[in-house]
Specification:
The protein is of the alpha/beta class. The protein has two domains: 103 residues, no CATH class; 181 residues, Nucleotidyltransferase, domain 5 (2-Layer Sandwich), CATH 3.30.420. It has a five-stranded mixed β-sheet with strand order 4-1-2-3-5. The longest helix has 15 residues. It is globular, with a radius of gyration of 24 Å.
Length: 317
């Protein structure tokens, strides 16, 4: 987990089969962070069928034989499991480690419940609360929101807002190295209603700038292909706060639901983080890693645009 990325990548080429023994790589680490090397490797293993073995304190602690559970500091987590243990870690050592660590550190390092959320932007995002099956409802307005990219992914999210103000992300589209006309075709084909019924398509304000080579803008290209966009300039922090409010407002309520089919957005909500080190680590802006920032940017543009509807201007001619 704490490997340098380049060193870890190079280590993958060091295996050598010998004398009938097939070489391989075993990765053993606590998943300290929800966006680190271990997270990426476990996610890849899940997709490719590579075996993943998981264990925590209760697989390694020694058998408890003579302690009163009700008076044991480990009781709230143990619930008697150590009575059936057969490990090597002394109970007194486990108690000492718990007492000198934070709760989040204890849960990440020893209980392996979840990685530490210390540097995560949306620490209160919980898939058990915020990920639910939500489908297109023809009785609700439909919005789209775009983040432009070529090498980095082009993102489109389809969103509806119900009568209680709950934001429902019903679908996603991410694609790299494709032209705007290709994206436009995909967006139209995936939109579950006629184009004229789309309430608004929000986008990155930078898309209105003309390119040095083409002399035109992404916004203008999309308009020529039948997709009209809207945008509003804002700071990154402003959009992040609006997303946080939807995840959990001051009164504890949540107004954000994401469909399970939006797997890239769900991953981004869990992995979007602040820089771990370097000059940027002391700032307020999350890391632009080229992976998790783009779905979040698209979501930001929706919240900014939907919060500030366009002003109606009356002109006399």
């Amino acid at each position: 987990e704490l490997f340098d990325d380049d060193v870890f990548a190079a280590a993958k080429f060091t295996t050598l089969s010998k004398e009938g023994l097939l070489a391989g790589i075993e990765l053993i680490s606590t998943m300290h962070r929800p966006y680190g090397i271990m997270q990426r490797e476990v996610a890849a293993a899940t997709k490719t069928g590579v075996p993943v073995f998981k264990w925590c304190l209760w697989e390694t602690i020694e058998k408890c034989t003579d302690r009163n559970c009700s008076q044991c500091p480990l009781w709230s987590d143990c619930r008697g499991r150590a009575k059936n243990a057969a490990g090597y870690l002394r109970i007194d050592d486990a108690i000492a480690q718990m007492r000198r660590s934070s709760r989040s550190g204890w849960e990440a390092e020893m209980l392996c419940i979840r990685p530490s959320l210390e540097n995560v932007v949306f620490g209160e995002f919980d898939p058990t609360i915020h990920v639910k099956p939500v489908d297109y409802d023809p009785n609700l307005p439909l919005y789209r929101t775009l983040d432009f990219g070529f090498v980095n992914p082009f993102v489109c999210l389809w969103i509806q807002v119900d009568g209680n103000g709950a934001v429902r992300v019903i679908d996603e589209y991410l694609r790299s190295r494709a032209t705007i006309d290709f994206h436009a075709g995909e967006i139209k084909s995936r939109t579950p209603c006629p184009e004229e019924r789309v309430a608004a398509t929000f986008c990155d304000p930078a898309g209105a700038a003309a390119g040095d080579i083409t002399g035109t803008s992404v916004v203008r290209e999309l308009r020529s292909l039948g997709i009209t966009t809207r945008y509003r300039r804002s700071g990154i922090v402003e959009g992040i706060e609006l997303i946080r409010r939807a995840i959990r407002s001051g009164d504890g309520r949540s107004s954000l639901l994401i469909s399970p089919r939006c797997c890239r957005l769900i991953e981004a909500m869990q992995c979007y983080h602040y820089p771990d080190d370097g000059p940027a680590a002391s700032g307020e802006l999350p890391l632009k890693d080229g992976v998790h920032d783009h779905p979040i940017d698209a979501l930001r543009y929706f919240f900014i645009g939907h919060q500030h509807p366009p002003k109606t201007t009356t002109r006399r001619y």
